[in-house]
Amino acid sequence: MSSTDKKITLQEGIDWTTSWRANRGDRNVKAFLIPAQDLEGALAEMSGQTGQKYVRAYIGVDDTNTDKLIIVGTEPETQRDGSIIYRDMITDDVTGQKYGGGGSLWDFTQPCPPECDPESPLNGN
């Protein structure tokens, strides 16, 4: 992995996705098709932050047993020892309680399969 831009090589991508498929148990998901709207929305919620920005992605399963990727913005919190923890920016839509700076949980993702690129070398074909 490049230390400057965090890009990985195609071979690293193939190795990592191959390892995921070999070790995922009975889950069928290989990837997620993510609308740019999800990422743009999470990034917009962090627009006032300075420095490095991160989003976090959680893997879940909805009530129809469809694999999901849940995307949340984060905000840095400096600890007493000077280390930084990136706190999830989420709001409980029932109670209104805010965690971190408050924000949304984004998921319009579609699992692969069926939303796969059949010609991608990352797909294991």
General description of the model:
By secondary structure, this protein is an alpha+beta fold. It has a domain at 30-116. Helices cover 19% and strands 29% of the residues. The chain is built from two helices and eight strands, in the order αβαβββββββ. The protein has helices at 10-23, 36-45; strands spanning 31-33, 55-61, 67-78, 84-88, 90-91, 98-99, 105-106, 110-112. Strands 2, 3, 4 and 7 form a four-stranded antiparallel β-sheet that branches. The longest helix has 14 residues, at 10-23.
What's this, in brief?
With 125 residues, the chain is of the alpha+beta class. It contains 2 helices and 8 strands; from the N terminus they run αβαβββββββ. The chain has a domain of 87 residues.
Q: What is the subunit organization of this protein?
A: single chain
Which stretches of 5+ consecutive residues score pLDDT under 50?
A: none
Count helical runs. 2
Largest sheet report: 4 strands, antiparallel
Rg of Cα set: 17 Å
Mean pLDDT equals 81
Strand content: 25-35%
Q: Write down the overall geometry.
A: globular
Order of helices and strands: HEHEEEEEEE
Terminus-to-terminus distance: 24 Å
Report the strand count.
8
Could you estimate the helical fraction of the residues in percent? 10-25%
Topology:
Layout: H1 10-23, E1 31-33, H2 36-45, E2 55-61, E3 67-78, E4 84-88, E5 90-91, E6 98-99, E7 105-106, E8 110-112
Antiparallel strand pairs: 1-8, 2-3, 3-4, 3-7, 5-6
Descriptive keywords:
125 residues, alpha+beta, four-stranded antiparallel sheet
